[in-house]
Amino acid sequence: MLKFKIFFVEKPNILLIVIDSLRSDKFSGIKKSSITPTFDKLIRDGTYFEQTISSAASTILAVSSLLTGIYPFKLGLGGKNYKKYPSESNNIAKILNEHGYTTYATAPEVASDFGLVCDFKNPDTAYDNYYSLFSGLGDEIINKFKNNILQGPWFFYIHLFDLHTPVIVPSLFDEEKFGISKYERMVSAIDNWLSKLFEYIEKENTIIIITSDHGEYIPVVQTENGIISLESSSTDQKLWKLGNKVPKNLYPLKQKMGSIIRKSRDQIKSTKLDETKLSEYEKRILSNTRMSIGHKLFDDFLKVPLLFAGPGIPKQKLVKNLIRQIDIFPTILEILELHLPKNIDGKSLKSLMNDQLENESIALIESPPSLKNTSPKFVGLRNSKYKYIKSLDEKKSIPELYDLMNDPLEEKNISSEQPEIAKNMEKSLSELRNFDVKELDFDDAEKERVENTLKKLGYI
């Protein structure tokens, strides 16, 4: 079988694009209604991993594992509360800085608040969380390439936040032909923007990686009587924009107003759901969001796209094996023929690109932390056949086991029907999480800044 080996005349540039909240089934496949010629061409020109599992439905936890190849809980980020990213940990920026690369980042300020971009070299690593790709950010990014200000070889991590709830679609793309939901219309808009960016990329010497931190619920359901959509209304979007300009001393008033709006919205949701016959899955995605209480470990949150394209990357290759977000870090290093650090959890995907047989990967997953102990902490284990979930509070834990082959929407908990499988997965989960963890607390000023950011984003 033909294997690929990369020979670089010069060190290749690396463009890592993380599209926040992008699900794998909305990047490629029959379930998407968006128009994505740029994504489609990249898939034809590269290698696509269709079963990529995120470490957690949280930007902080997911990006930390992506950049280090280490599970979030081993970095001290997987407790019941949000903690500080350990600056001494090895990450892709540190390693590439040491090997002649100039590292750049353009990421939302929430990544900066947690210290995830501190090792990148450009002074403008973070942008305001509400600065849209289509209100100036996109032009700023393109101009960095257009004006040749990047010092090569470079590694550029671009994190796009426009799919983060609430989704505010540019008017040019806010039509049904670009997608059934506002979420998918935004996917079409992002795809179109990427086509403009790629006009200024030196493709013959740039490896492009596209992925996401986590997925999202899309509260849109097609029924016999038409489409039910509970996406954010234009009023919600205007209030959200206005609310994020409220000064800190008025936060209590903002929270009270927000509570009233949420109760009204929930009442409307409840009425709509009561009047319609829906499946368990449909009820779940219409009733909840990623901000709701619960474990957030369903595949809507955890299955993300992963694409590699560029010099030396096999073309038109679809990899069906289950792989993990933590595998991106070692894959980049092995492609560049750099030494892999010890004690990382991820493994390189280069052998899968070469069609070599590999033992099935097992993905550790965990729920996002909270700032004020408002949500219990859940952990889990996922392979290609089953997913096992449990709470870390043993007294309140009702284990969940899902047969992913026969129940891909995860509607039926079979832990009581398959106790042996649940027991074995519980044992494996306990063994894999048996690790002494050092957690770093924020100081008072850092904690206040982080809390303010998470409040604005709707996490607390």
Write structural notes for this entry.
The structure is a single chain. With 460 residues, this protein is an alpha/beta fold. It has three domains: 13-217 and 296-361, Alkaline Phosphatase, subunit A (3-Layer(aba) Sandwich), CATH 3.40.720; 220-287; 365-440, Arylsulfatase, C-terminal domain. Helix content is 32%, strand content 17%. It contains 14 helices and 15 strands. The protein has helices at residues 37-45, 59-68, 92-98, 109-113, 133-146, 182-197, 234-243, 251-274, 280-287, 299-302, 328-335, 350-353, 419-432, 444-457, and strands at 13-19, 46-53, 102-108, 126-127, 154-160, 206-211, 220-223, 226-229, 303-304, 306-309, 317-324, 363-366, 378-382, 386-391, 400-403. The strands form three sheets. Strands 1, 2, 3, 4, 5, 6, 9, 10 and 11 form a nine-stranded mixed beta sheet that branches. Helix 5 runs parallel beside helix 6 (182-197). The mean pLDDT is 89.
Features:
single chain, 460 residues, alpha/beta, Alkaline Phosphatase, subunit A, Arylsulfatase, C-terminal domain, 3 domains, nine-stranded mixed sheet, four-stranded antiparallel sheet, 14 helices, 15 strands, 17% strand, globular
